[in-house]
Amino acid sequence: MDKKQLDALILQLENHVECWKQFNHFLSLARAKTFTPEDETQFLEVKSNIAQGLEMLMSQVEGGGAPPREEIHALLTNAPSIRYMSELADNSLRGLENQWHKIFLGWQGILGQLKVKQKELEGKSFFGSLFGKK
């Protein structure tokens, strides 16, 4: 993977992680039982972005290490709406939060690995430019 592709993948993954942060915000709204119809609409959009981003990322992330697709789909399926989550028993909602946390940390780990590769490529291109190589 060249530097340009890697930069694009990192940006894509950073956007995906932001969607996961928004998902957690909606979990908090469900726990507090303070949400509006607009929140429900935004929640569905975030879930859609997560599902689409997942497929794009899975096709590009090399060597595994990404959170398993089945776990992500299970979390999205078990959280059909904020209202549904707000009506769950505390243990069930805590289970969703734990699933979210595990997936979120998995994506953060992948992002960290990609940034290490990015720094390595930047170092190589810097030294290559000193010696007249690309």
Describe this structure in words.
With 134 residues, the protein is an all-alpha fold. The chain has 5 helices and no strands. The relative contact order is 0.16. The model has no long low-confidence stretch (mean pLDDT 91).
What is the average per-residue confidence, as pLDDT, rounded to a whole number? 91
Cα distance spanning the termini: 15 Å
* Continuous helix count: 5
Give the helix proportion (percent range).
Answer: over 70%
Shape annotation: elongated
Uncertain runs: none
Q: State the secondary-structure class.
A: mainly alpha
Task: Tell me what portion of residues adopts beta-strand conformation.
Answer: under 5%
Any idea what the radius of gyration is? 18 Å
Number of strands: 0
Largest sheet: none
Helices and strands, in order, run as HHHHH
Topology:
Layout: H1 3-32, H2 37-58, H3 69-77, H4 82-86, H5 90-130
Features:
134 residues, mainly alpha, 5 helices, 0% strand
What's a quick, concise take on this entry?
The chain is mainly α and 134 residues long.
